[in-house]
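User: Modeling request: complex.
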Amino acid sequence: MRSYLLSRLLGMIPTLAVISVIIFVVIQLPPGDIVTSMLDRLQAQGVDTTEEYVQNLRAQYNLDKPMVLQYFYWAGNLLTGDMGYSHLYSRPVNDLLWERLGYTLSITVSALFFTWLVALPIGIYSAIRQYSIGDYILTTIALVGLATPPFLVALVFMHIGFDWFGVSTGGLFSPEYEDAPWSWARIADLLAHIWLPMIIIGLGSAAFTMRILRANLLDELNKPYVVTARAKGVGHAKLIIKYPVRIAINPFISTIGFVLPSLISGEAIVSLVMGLPTIGPLLLQALLNQDMFLAGSLLMWLAILTVVGILLSDILLAWIDPRIRFE
Amino acid sequence: MDTVLKVRDLAVDFKTDLGLTHALVDVGFDMPRGKVTAIVGESGSGKSVTANCIMRIIQPPGRIVGGTIDFAPQGMDPFEIVSLGKRDPRLKELRGGLISMVFQEPMTALSPVYTVGNQVAEAILCHRKVGRKQAWQEAAEMLERVGIDDIDRRIRMYPFEFSGGMRQRVVIAMALVCHPEILICDEPTTALDVTIQAEILTLIRDLQQELGNSVLFITHDIGVVAQLADQVVVMYQGRVLEIGTVRQVLKDPVHPYTKGLLAAIPGLAPKGEPLATIATVVGDTDITRPYPLVTLRDGRQVSLPRDQLQGAVG
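Assistant: Request completed. Predicted assembly structure:
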């Protein structure tokens, strides 16, 4: 187990290195760079720039160096923890990122828990009562949930909240706590706001998870080991949970790593609609404005989260399933 | 004769897309206490369905539509199995406590994610009020008894670390650990290779003689029947065709189908001639039509049309 962990941890290094190259290349692909978009803006404001000023600017961002060197400057700075400077927000990327990363993680992780909390019991019910009225009703709801884009659900919820209850459901904080320092009251305010995006973002994946769990469980329900346990006299509820469900949830544990990035990208549009201070809208702005340091750092962090997520789910799977542990 | 289990008029239907399939039609037989009763028949003859009825583990779309199974466990009031309510405590006691089962597929009959000890001890914990430690202790003793050595290490191993034969030993231990009145073996050796088959059969017979329980042995292997059984029940298309002692049925079968079944065994057929098929031996007798079981003078029971019965008796 220890050597498995070590090899997996070491394996992350080349993976992330390759990802960083790809991210760098992709960011450089569109025509123009930071300086051209800065100049555009300056020109729009009616400021004239000299050729010398432009050259200085390019030198400042190492844009006059060859591409390969540019990559190593960027990657080297990342390694030392310096993610560069966002010209779009005129702040160091480090300052911008941490807070938003925290909000993004808390929304996605809580959405993940919500997904499981909803999908697990419903999926189990649907499987053991296959083709019952309850199964049909829940399946229909799940299909509607799958087919409705989350941003639409967000709009509907916000409309209902505003029209019927007179509350503004956007954002993660009430206006009075928006810029307040952290306190218990601010945390309580956050919790009072975070549940709505959590449900909206989790809804689609809950429907998806429930359908897959139902299918997996139907496969397992009539396996010989379930019949053996029933013939042994194990009670019905314990039988279902201890035997088929335990096997049917394995695929989900292995997908936690993949669900994280899809939740984060699903979160982007919802966050735009609801005005949430998360990574999604920031990434969109950064890409639109060719703010390469900001965009690169964000993409790199998403990659790191994904790789760590996959590692965590693999460890969890090895812990829960002896067949993997013993290989 | 002391009868432990009395099956009468048992009928099971399976609802399928093609309509109702009668899996069992008026099945009836007695199991003498402390003896081995074998049910023989080809695939789909209803052997396993009969066993599942006795355990009450028939799953939809299958349904028991009629009949009775009277069960007389020692030291307990006799009761009828088919009419037991879902929440009747006797049903829970029946499964794994009074009657237990060994299945065909040892490779898949155990859950891969729990240790062998966990799954054997669970059988004890389901039926008796004992602590975990005590249950594991008894599980270890039973596992040793079925021939698994190095028990301190093996009891903490997972089924996928065991060979097929060892897994079947574990399943047998799991079935016997609560000292059931009846052990049902549903083709327990079909999935094993020949040398292991012999070992498992010997084990089942030795344990039966040691513990004195009754065994219902389901198989399509006539050789196994000869080796193991006291009484034989021949089934075909969900019906019982012939019941008798192992000597009566194997040496001197009455029903044409039984004759056909025996003639189709390579080892018993005359040398140098093409092997008989069941159809050629059965000849004109319509074995697909149900006739009531009639008891002959020598105690055996057969299901035959009236005119052929007279020939059989004479």
